[in-house]
Each structure stands twice: as structure tokens, then as C-alpha cells.
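Review form for a predicted model. The reviewer records the input and the model, then writes brief findings.
Reviewer: anonymous (R2)
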Amino acid sequence: MKMNKVYFPIVIAVAIAIGLLLGSKLNSSTDNSLFSRNSNKNKLNKLIDFIEKEYVDSLNTDSIVDLTVNGILEKLDPHSVYIPKSDLDAITQSMRGDFVGIGVNFYMYNDSLAVIKPIAFGPSEKVGIKAGDRILFADRLQLYNKKISTDSLFAILKGEQGSTIKLTVFRKSENKKFAVNVKRDVIPIKSVDIATMVSKTAGYIKVNRFAETTYDEFFKGLSQLKKQGAKEIIIDLRDNGGGYLESAVAIADEFLKNKELIVKTKNKKGKVDTTLATEKGIFEKGKVTILINENTASASEILAGAIQDNDRGTIVGRRSFGKGLVQREMPLGDGSAVRLTVARYYTPSGRSIQKPYEDKAENYFNEFEKRFESGELYEKDKTKIADSLKFKTKKGRTVYGGGGIIPDVFVPFEGKHGEEMTTLMLQSGFVNYFVFEQIDKNRNKFAKMSIEEIKKEVHQNNNYFNAFKKHIATSGLMLNLDNQKEKTLHYIHAEFVHQLFDEKQYYQLLLKEDLMLNKVLNR
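Model under review:
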């Protein structure tokens, strides 16, 4: 089982949050002496014991501990956080890059578990499960008409590697019910969505986060593109919230020359650690472009900063998020953990790109709204520049610190003023679910159609546009799509291709209308 980012683009926000939460360098610590150096900790222990024994009403003292830990961390920076056990497992799994399951993308449709698409070469595909199938039972447990939460479904379908689960399946397209035994296996969670040629000489790689497996995925894609004749590599870091510093450093090393500086970190005691490129890079010559936006953060900014400060490539897009703090993880012994900021990182020119965090509430993370209101998303001149924080790149170009990576080439937000919500909606799960439901009405018909035939079907038949307007209105979104009809139909067509064909064809179609990518290709 896998809920893929492409099929559930609304999960982009979750991925960004995970990246921001993780920071850019994670080291586990089991040094319990960190908690024993201050005798004042006994105050907390005595208070909690007193409440547990004497407080007039019954309560869960674990929740008090959680509140206490959160209260302490809130006095620090926005990225020093407490991770409860219920969240830590999912975050760890995402950043590890795999989990054990049955290998399907799904969502609950009319209170039934509907398979959007089985994972290629995964356990479910191997036993014949297809897109559109409904999973009615997992062993003897009924899954339909039960209002089971997505988290509960994950727990039911996951298990030990090699364990078997009996699924009872209904295939609507053939009007038949059957049972299959699925042997659970390791399911990769891709952090590199696609590596594909976007012109005769330009290769494109989309990285959605920096997990343990990211470098290996990236290197494989980069090697393939180089073999296909790529003379330019475009790395898409838009909406990438970060993750492991080591993965970003390893990728930067593929483009930088031996001993070029990649990143520096400095801790409370003033200790500075520097990371240099090695001789192993396979793309040290050739054009490099990195795409960023307001949700590009943490490890993504390390990679962008290293390329920019070494004058190795061009940064295109809008100012990045601005997270330059390094966290260390300490398990608390009960399955939960604390991630504490222990250092700052600096780009090769010496920039700290951490933005101010006096406002540590929601406004700190709500960059899109703030930048929209300031006009920064649409006009280059509205980008805040700290004139007092000037730095020089390797070749002497001026770059600025004080909050995020400022691109070399500015590209405004896709869509005009007033169309922001429509663009975000089209990039969310609304289109995915709508398309699945349209295909589900007559899967046999769509299975016989070519990509071009689907395009004609979608663009020349007003029924799809009208049905989509009704779909979002039913969901409570009051948006006027009439002046963005072609854009809407383009996203709908692309998602049809994605669900009926494969990711490569989906991306190639979607990227044709990508404003930022076209800016790069037409320079």
C-alpha cells in the first residue's frame, strides 16, 4: 500500500511539513545525561507525580507531559519540536524511503476502498489487482460501509515482510468478485518523482524530499539522462521541504569540483564543520539549473545555495522558504522524540539563509499568504533583500542573506492575481479524485483510448468541464473556472494520462505548460 504524491498532490503540504520538521541534519542521541545536569527537572517530576496522585479529577498524565514538553520547546525556535510516537513512525518511514505493505494507491470512494493504481511490480500487481478494483475484505475484516479512517486502513494492510493477507476484491469493470492472497513486501516511497529529457539536450529531475534513498535515486536518473545526451540538468526543488543534509550534499557533489565548499555548520560553542566536494562528480561540466519556490526549504536550500555560491549554475523561480537551522534527534524512551536545533548552516559564501523567527506562531510557516499579500509572488522588486547582508560568490557576484535563497532569474507565480486558489486547487487532490470517478464510470472505454483520443474527449466535450465545476462546488469550493477553462482541462487531461498510462508520459504532458520550466528552456 502506498499513497503516492502524484496521485495525492495535496500531500505536498505534508511532505513540506515533514522536511521542515526534520531539519537538514538528523543525528540520534541517547545521552541521558542531557536531562540530568539540571536539578530543576525534579520540579517537573514532583508536579506530575502530585497531580497523578492527588488531583480531584481523573486524567491522563501522559498528555500533561506532552503539553509540558511542547510548552518548553515553543520558547525556542520554530523547528525545535516534540514528535509524539503516533507521528514519529510515519515520519521515520517516509524519510527511510520504504515500508512494508501490499503496494496500491487507494482512496475511500463512496465508503469503499478503491484502488487508483497498483504499484508497478509490487505485490498487488503481481497477483492481478487492477486500477478500479474495490477491496472488500482484508482477511475476514470488512472494509466497506465501515467508515474506517485512512490511518486505520494503513495499519490493516501493512505488516511484516513476507506475511500474507487474503483480500476479497470486487472488479466493477467485469462485475465479478474474487479472492487473492497477497504477500506483503517492501514498497519504495520515491523521493525522485521523474528523470526525463525535456528537450534534445536538457534533462529534468524532480526531487520531492531528501530521504535516505534520494541520492541513489537521483544518481540513477542523472546517469540515465547523461547517457541520453543531456548537456544541461534541470533540478526541480519546488515544494521540497528538505530532509537529510547528507543526501543534498551528495547530490551537490555530483556537480561541483574537488574541494569546492558545499556547506558549513556552526554550533553553540562556535565549532565549525565544513563539507567539501570530492573528485567523484559525474556532471562537473555542463549547464545546471535549479528551480525553487516559496516552499523550497532546508536541505533543498543547501543544494541551491551550494550551486549558486560556487557559480556552478542558475537558480530560477522565487525566493525560497529560509530555513537554516540544523536539528538533532533524541529519543525519549517511549517511542516519542525531541528534535532540537543544535547548529546553523551557512552557504559557501557565508550566508545564513535562516529567516527571522520572532513570530513563531502560524505566521512563520504561512509564507505563501504573506508573500502573496506583499506582492512578492508576482513582482521581483517586491522580494525583500537585506542590503546589510551582502556576500560574494566564487566569481564575485553579490548574493544576499537574511531569509531564503533569492533566485538569479525570477519567475512569477503561475496565474494572474485572483487566480491563486484555482491554481493551488488544480495541483491538489481534487483533480485526481474527479478523474478517477470519471474513469470508473466506464473503465473499459478509456482503456482502449490513446493519449490524443483522451485529449479530444476531454477538451471537446463540455461535460467534463461542467462536471468538474460541480465536483469542486460540492466540495465547498466557490471558484469561478470559466476564465481558466483551458488550464483546467489541461490538468484534467494530464491526470487521465497519469492514471491510464504512466508517470513519464504524465510529466511530459504536464511540463509542456510549466511556466518556470519553459522560462529555462526558452532562455
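Findings: DSSP finds 19 helices and 21 strands in the chain.
Further findings: The domain at 11-81+191-328+347-413 is CATH 3.90.226.10 (2-enoyl-CoA Hydratase; Chain A, domain 1).
Recommendation: see findings above.
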